[in-house]
Write a structure and sequence with these properties.
mainly beta; about 10% helix
């Protein structure tokens, strides 16, 4: 569902301290939709956000461990979808990252390098921001990455409570995937998490209710093959 003219409503809700939370809980690969948390690490904070920019919870969410999570086989170039328990409610970008595990994804804590593969940013072509506030988000595994096991991370950065009076919120989940068929020719810009997002980032500090006519998504540029 596209959100077009709900800025005033969202502002009113924010002013009243009302919050609506959500979690990416289900992964699909191509046409196959799997059970909730079958291939996504299950968090322990229900559907609450992470707000501490220095926390390791920014990697895959609070309490999200790999040991009890299965790893799904995917092919480079194959489509995948993250589905939420309820559609995204807060304005802000959706970003998808990957991090190659040194061995099994289930043993990996996400402390290595991360690269971004996709941003769902606002569209200003109508003269105001239009956010993609959906119940699911789809993309493809890049064809140029190396074969191996990865954490596939999706993040909703909710910026409905403008900094510094409010604190932006990160809604995060990580799937565990085993990629085959990649060319290995990629050369992405990489970051560490935490560390990729700063209080000085324009995409973090922006006030979406005042003179909001452009936006830069925090983090590195998405990989292009």
């Amino acid at each position: 569902m596209k959100n077009f003219a709900n800025v005033a409503v969202a502002a009113a809700l924010a002013a009243k301290g009302v919050s609506a939370h959500y979690i990416f809980q289900q992964l699909s690969v191509d046409a196959t939709k799997y059970a909730p948390f079958e291939y996504i690490r299950q968090n322990t904070n229900y559907n609450s956000p992470v707000t501490d920019l220095a926390s390791n919870d920014l990697r895959c969410n609070v309490g999200a461990q790999g040991a009890d999570t299965q790893t799904v086989d995917v092919k480079a170039g194959e489509s995948f979808t993250f589905t939420l328990d309820t559609p995204v409610y807060h304005q802000g970008p959706i970003s998808i990252y990957m991090s190659k595990a040194p061995g099994a994804a289930s043993d990996y804590d996400g402390s290595g390098e991360w690269f971004k593969i996709k941003d769902f940013a606002p569209d200003f072509s109508s003269g105001q921001a239009v956010w993609d506030m959906s119940g699911s988000y789809s993309y493809t595994i890049p064809s140029c990455i190396e074969d191996g096991e990865y954490l596939l991370r999706i993040q909703s950065l909710a910026i409905h409570n403008p900094w510094p009076a409010g604190i932006p919120q990160f809604y995060i989940s990580c799937a565990q995937v085993k990629v085959s068929g990649g060319s290995g020719s990629y050369n992405p810009s990489t970051v560490r998490i935490p560390g990729a997002f700063k209080e000085t980032d324009p995409g973090y500090t922006v006030n979406i209710y005042s003179n909001f006519n452009n936006y830069t998504v925090p983090g590195p540029a998405p990989l292009t093959c």
